[in-house]
Amino acid sequence: MCSGNRICPDGTFQMHSWFVLPNGDVSAHSYWCRSEGGAPAVTDDVVATAFRRIPLPPSTFSIQPPGGRTLVNLVTSS
């Protein structure tokens, strides 16, 4: 249901933006006109929130070569 005028001064429709938080709540509703400067700015907090939603596997590390022993300062090719 529309509650109010959603037409921009130039006659185009307003754009609707919102963010979905990791817990599923919707936040930061805003309406804006393309002719008036575009979408709301993307902030560091918005990027951090979006990044936390990406399912990344835990990081691992390995030492190469296996066992961790290497030869240093030794010519290995002719």
Structural category is alpha+beta
Report Rg. Answer: 26 Å
Q: Could you name the ranges where pLDDT drops below 50 across 5 or more consecutive residues?
A: none
Question: Helix proportion of residues, in percent?
Answer: 10-25%
Total strands: 2
Biggest sheet statistics: 2 strands, antiparallel
Strand order of the largest sheet: 1-2
Q: Name the overall outline.
A: elongated
Cα-to-Cα separation, first versus last residue: 78 Å
Q: Estimate the strand proportion.
A: 15-25%
Counted up, domains total 1
pLDDT averaged residue by residue: 76
Q: Helical region count?
A: 1
Please trace the helix and strand order, writing H or E for each element.
EEH
Textual characterization of the structure:
This protein has 78 residues and is α+β, with helices and mostly antiparallel strands. It has one domain (1-55). The protein is built from one helix and two strands. The chain has one helix at 44-52; strands at 15-20, 26-32. The chain has a two-stranded antiparallel ribbon. A hairpin with a 5-residue loop joins strand 1 (15-20) and strand 2 (26-32). The longest helix is centred in the middle third of the chain and has 9 residues, at 44-52.
